[in-house]
Amino acid sequence: MTVIRAALLGFGTVGQGVYEAIKTHQKRLQERLGKKVEIAGVLIRDLRKQRSLPKHILVTDNIEDILAIDDLDIIFEAIVGNEPCYTYLNQAIEKGCHIITANKAMFAQFGTKLLEKAKQHRVQVGFEATTAGGVPIIRTIEQLLQVNKIEKVEAILNGTSNFILSEMRKNKLSFPDALQLAQERGYAEADPTNDIEGIDAFYKLMILSELIYGGQPEWRTVEKQGIRTLTSEKVQLAEQKQKRYKQIASLTKKDGKVLASVKPILVNKAHPLYHVEDVDNAIKLETSLIGTFTLQGPGAGKLPTASAMVEDFIYVLEKDKSIKQQGEVVYS
Q1: Are residue 320 and residue 275 in the same domain, yes or no?
Q2: CA-to-CA distance for 303 and 159, rounded, in angstroms?
Q3: Do 244 and 182 lie in a common domain?
């Protein structure tokens, strides 16, 4: 049986999740691909930190060592920040590797350039994991909504903020206490700014904007409000009125202009996002033919993001195989 050789860039929460998913679902992957999937290398930042990896896997802090791996087919990227991630992915594409990324900040800014470069080098880019954790919104839009016009998006795109608001309502916690609980459970970083100030959701919304409307609004024009100012009293008062605060990312196009915002909004029981709780993400799409529908699922945690990356892995390889069999090059 031939082997698909892969490398991981980053071995934090998401990188470990991808490694575990491939290890525990190896049989399923082999049945689908007809090949064994092998993690050949892992790029890390600190070589002094102990990691439970087999000796046959190259562990290095040098991207050149990863790119030098013989017959490397695909790279899973799970690094925080624009750089050195963007540079590494450019190098991987030039080498002829498919790439799967979970980096929403980088992809919101440079995704279009990476996709164009991948097209030139005849490789594929998977970015499902950049947007809504385990919710397959990217694939849904790309494959299932090719005729429908998406008229409006309303979404909960940050599981951490949703968890905090859920705890403030259900258990009457203060904002600081709910945030601390989110950190203890691994849903929030030590510095939670991106989550609670709407920045993380903003990046994801920009990726959706590019995908749906072929462009993004000027970033400085997008209203961003966090949830830090919401008190337990406000949340409880809303609950008494049968309403709930949700950090909602909104996207629409009017008179040729893309309009977007990320802010806490009060929704009532009739709203599809009212019942979305804990770390779940949900995306409500208003479309021209289907009408309105909502996708929902886990938006935070190791395995939901890893699941999105591994599913992208299958999709990317099968798409590449199909293109080669057809003898033509058509890249999205």
Answers
A1: no
A2: 14
A3: yes
Low-confidence ranges of the chain (pLDDT < 50): 329-332
* Residues 154 and 235 occupy one common structural domain: yes
Range of the domain at 117: 3-133+303-326
pLDDT in tens, 220-234: 999 999 999 999 999
CA-CA-CA-CA torsion for 110, 114, 280, 233, nearest 10 degrees? 0
Pairing, β 72-77 against β 58-60: unpaired
Write the pLDDT tens digit of every residue in 17-72. Answer: 999 999 999 999 999 999 999 999 999 998 888 888 998 999 999 999 999 999 99
The four Cα atoms 318, 321, 322, 327 give a dihedral, to 10 degrees, of 170
Distance CA 148, CA 128 (A): 20
If asked whether residues 163 and 264 sit together in one domain, one would say yes
Selecting among 104, 204, 246, 253, the annotated active-site residue is 204
Determine the residue type at 134: G
Q: Is 204 labeled as catalytic in the residue annotation?
A: yes
Whether 279 is covered by a domain: the verdict is yes
